Amino acid sequence: MEDFHICPVTNYYKKYLLPVSYSLVFVLGLALNAALLWCVCCRTRRWSSTVIYLTNLAVADLLYVLALPPLIISNAMGSLWPFGNIICKSVRFFFFVNLHCSMMFLTCVSVHRFLGVCFPIAAVRLRTRRLALFASGSVWILATAEILPTLVFAHTGVINNMTVCFEMTNPGQFRVYFPYGLFLAIVGFLIPFLVVITCYCSMISALYCRAADSISTGRTARMRNKSLYTLLVVLLMFVVCFVPYHIARTVYLFVRVYMPADCHLLNVVMISFKVWKPVVSFNCCANPLLYFLGCNRHRQQLRAWLWRRRKRVQPTVSVVDAGSTNRSGG
For the whole model, what pTM was predicted? Predict the structure, then answer.
C-alpha cells in the first residue's frame, strides 16, 4: 500500500464535529424519511407524479443517511479506516450517488411545481405519472453514471502510518481527478442549481404579480402568502445546504492541484470544506420537514398514527403498573 506524505493539517475538529453532526443527521434523516415514505406509500391511494418524485427523493435521502455510519466511526477514530478497500469505495460511491440524486429530484420537484404555477394548462399534459416515472428512472441512471469514476478514484491509503479512506482520491492523483471534480460541480450541481433558482424565482414572481393584480378573499390571500413563504423557505434551504459546500469543495480541489505547497492556505480551505460537509447532509432532514410542514393532510395522518401508537402502548403500561402495585401491596 502506497504511503502518502502531505502538508500537516489541522483535523482535531473532525473527531468531534463530523461524528456528532453525522450522527444527528443519521437519526433524524432515518426517522423523518421513513415517516415520509410511510405517508406517501402506505397512506396514499392514488400515485400522482408528485408522490412519485417525493418517494424517490425520500429513498435517495434514506440511502444517503445509511451510508453515514462507517464515516461516523472513521471520523470518531481520527480518520482511521478499519473497514477495508471495498467498503471504502462502496461508501464513497453510495454517499455521492444519493447526494446527487437528492439534488436532481429536488430539481424535478421544482420543475413540477413551476409548471403547475406558471403554465397550468401545459401542466395537465406534462405532469403525468408516466413522465414522472421516466424522469425518476433517468435521474437514478444519470447519477449512477456520473459517480461511477468514484469507484476508481476512491480507495484506501496510508498517511502518517494510518490507513485512511480517501474521499476523492489520493494526493498524488488530484491533478487527474480535478477535471472530473469540475465536471461533477457543473453537471451535478451548477446546472440543477440554476434550474431550481429559475423555477422558484419564476413561481415567486408569478404569485406576487397575481396577488397585486387581483382582488382576493382573506382565505385566498392567506393561501397565496403561505405558498410564497414556502417557496422562499425551500429556495433558502437549497441555497444554504448546497451552495457553500460545492464552492468550498471546488476551491479545495483548486488549491490541492495548483497550490499544494501552501500549507496554511491548504489548511484554511480544507477546514472550510469539512465544516460545510455536515450542512449539505442536513438537507436530507430538511426535505421531509418542509414536506410535513407544507402539507396539512399528511401532517394530520402522521399525528393520527402517532396518537394511535401512543394509545396502544398506554394500556400495556397501565397493566404493568397495576401488576407492580398489586405485588408491592401483597
Answer: 0.80
